[in-house]
Amino acid sequence: MAETPHITTAMAVGERVGMGAPRADFDQLLGKHEGVYAAISARSFAGRQAQANARLAAETAPEESRALRAS
Question: Using CA atoms, how far apart are residues 51 and 45, in angstroms rounded to an integer?
Fold first, then answer.
């Protein structure tokens, strides 16, 4: 949604089916269903905020605490 590269990996435990859609089709669908767009945006934002908070906590943790996590 942010139009930035995002690479991720996943492993299926059983049989799965994947789906894809061109960006223009996805944008058109979200334009017709603003509630869905708002929910996806909020979840995306919350996830990124949680990642940023975790990075900040790790970077500002006392040296002893970082050493314990590394072991």
Answer: 10
- Domain chopping of the chain, boundaries: 24-70
Long-range Cβ contact pairs of 63-69 (< 8 A, separation 24 or more): none
Type of residue found at 67: A
Instruction: Convert the pLDDT of each residue in 27-48 to its tens digit.
Output: 888 888 888 888 888 888 888 8
CB 1 within 8 A of CB 44: yes
H-run or E-run covering 57: helix 34-60
- Give backbone dihedrals phi and psi of 14, rounded to 5 degrees, phi first: -135, -170
pTM, two decimals, is 0.43
As separate numbers, helices (DSSP H) first and strands (DSSP E) second, the chain gives: 3, 0
> Measuring CA to CA, which residue among 6, 10, 29, 30 is closest to residue 18?
10
